[in-house]
């Protein structure tokens, strides 16, 4: 939980090095190596000695879907405490080691994984990996930092309880995935977080942190032999297999359901979505391209043109595809005046129906394909982003040559493919959550207080 603050306090030399390492050469994509350590731990590596830095991204299968049913938030609270003391180092001593060596370490939680990142100067890599080893294998979960982090988490949850976007997201997943682990927010609830104990954190760590659920990607100034040795030292003592509870496949519940949550805020936040297709579906790239046409292309998208430019209902609107281990959805969001919220939701639904009925045009398809091919390497413009992409490609089982194959996969999508997939995904009914003032109340001026 100190990461946001500690990342601002870095030696000048390290900050300059980060700027120098901001660019990752496009040709690096052709140099992805599959490294297998002597102990059998696998990682993808892009070796680049442009500057003496190393960035690693890793993930353990599990995430908040493995939280106890009556204690959502265990995974997040555990992750937030991993760097709050480990081994014989208490919280202060552990952070002093991180800061003295300008080591960046972060942990995040999704519904399916606990992810971590590590970035350091080459000369400090042994100490950085050793500190990570301690965090993963011997976290202390001492009372003082645990209560401090718990208080910070509760403060965030209270703020989210009056934030339109957070309310909409929590309500959307709760309504879309009732009685499923995906229903609850990874951060937990104001009711559950106070009940989580240090033993809950230990139990969660022991069942999730295992080598069979580990995925690793590394970019930077390190060779395969050195990386293999560090992988074994860092992860080699973890159990071979985790003890994860089964999580069932699920399809989002929609039923043309519109949910309204009253909140006295200037604008109404609208979140909408429905079922999509999985990442391993042969039609996924066609769906990805059509989503770009609908709402992924920002100023060039259909929804932006129809809802913002033509009618002035919103400032911005966007959509994206979300794929998880047990489901896939498309998700969109926007915000508008309360008295125009229903009209906005109707226009969005109508535009999605139009793309489902008619599909995109050939021009839209060609322009989207050109953009998506050209933007990929621009998006991977830092070591951390590149490592994150390599991690995701592994999690998605796309193959180590995916970046080489991606342009051809995009080019292979035909207009018939795009029309078929548009009907397959966007003809479904929507789940829409609106958070804001009731339209009737918004249309009535509030009295001026003396």
From TrEMBL:
Q: Give every Peptidase M16 C-terminal domain span.
A: 195-371
Q: Which UniProt keywords apply?
A: Signal
Q: Which residues cross the membrane?
A: none
Under which name does UniProt file this protein? Peptidase M16 inactive domain protein
Q: What organism does the record attribute this protein to? A: Afipia felis ATCC 53690
Q: Where is the signal peptide?
A: 1-28
Would I find Signal among this entry's keywords? yes
Q: Which Pfam families match?
A: Peptidase_M16, Peptidase_M16_C
SUPFAM superfamilies to which the protein is assigned, alphabetical = LuxS/MPP-like metallohydrolase
The superkingdom listed in its UniProt entry is Bacteria
Kindly give the InterPro entries that the UniProt entry links to this protein. Answer: Metalloenz_LuxS/M16 (IPR011249), MPP/UQCRC_Complex (IPR050361), Pept_M16_N (IPR011765), Peptidase_M16_C (IPR007863)
Domain named Peptidase M16 N-terminal: which ranges? Answer: 47-152
